């Protein structure tokens, strides 16, 4: 058998079911790597070795009592840390902020319940920026999250800690969430697969409301099949869910085994939310090479128009600032917030009720117009990011939060389109680029129509087979 950390989540689950390795051995291996590697990458804010070993012991009882491997949870004995924007019962919950103090979660969030039921081992809580707001992970309560490919550069955000843990081979899978690109951004920066599901595919329930519906829970993985299998785990409906989607024809994992058929792909290289956002040549070259690969695979590729004017994105900004304001910060702790968070919350206070309602309405109108503009395409192909992974500290600007926010927009001029519409999108690590003598990952993004995760996963699996990335590993591996 390969080394434990070289296996994907599904491969490791198979090894556990076949008794080739025990859950306790897996837990010890992952925890040793976490303790050794984390000081250089900043993946974790809290390690939970006792909880991971307790879950491993429970997994071994299930193995002993099982008559058939088919009875066992799909990811039994597989490490899966949880981003610190989700609650894990009995574990500190700080959301990247000093303002929450020493709060300990009283219960598991729904996605954590599902990950537990799937048999995963909770290694710890992963690093995230304050309330998950920016696309870099540099909170004051923890060291920055760094991409293992070049530890002078950011792992992205806001699921930066999760991405760093997976890219460094600490865990094969990790929980993340995406409100404006927060799974896909670190997936690109760390050379991983990152899928933002369709709005309603992964419920925020049973404790959290849907709100404006911009954000979704998901995962960071090293291959497409793990992403698909975990979407099967997480696409669970809780009573009272506001959004609901029909389940896949069979499973999302099965979609990876099916050919996607000939698809019409729209190639989008013009930034959407910032008219003049500079785009690195390496990011453009990666998406152009991917377009040629798609043509070689029999798909039809043609240029796609920008779906709406950059000014339309102002509705996202209004809602984003209100979301920042809605974070449960005790008034006496407001001074502990970072300048960016305070600036966003102040903007949120200036949004009136009618402003907020108008912003929601404009998002819905924009979604209809985008659907009409892209009606001819099954998939939209674009760069994930406009730039290579950013040097740590280069984006955070405490002295000028407005400039910080503007730089975030220029760095991510495509990702939030899919949060506005609520449609699915996945970043895949098809390409690399050389910068300062270091090889860096470059993600490309595939976006689909409402509810078309099966199409995206089938296409992503086809691309992975045609241009495999499994053997590409950072030097920290």
TrEMBL record:
Coiled coil: none annotated. PROSITE patterns: AMIDASES. Residues 26-457 form the Amidase domain. Gene3D superfamilies: Amidase signature (AS) domain. One of its GO terms (molecular function) is catalytic activity. Pfam families: Amidase (PF01425). SUPFAM superfamilies: Amidase signature (AS) enzymes. Belongs to the amidase family. PANTHER family: GLUTAMYL-TRNA(GLN) AMIDOTRANSFERASE SUBUNIT A, MITOCHONDRIAL, TRANSAMIDASE. This is Amidase.
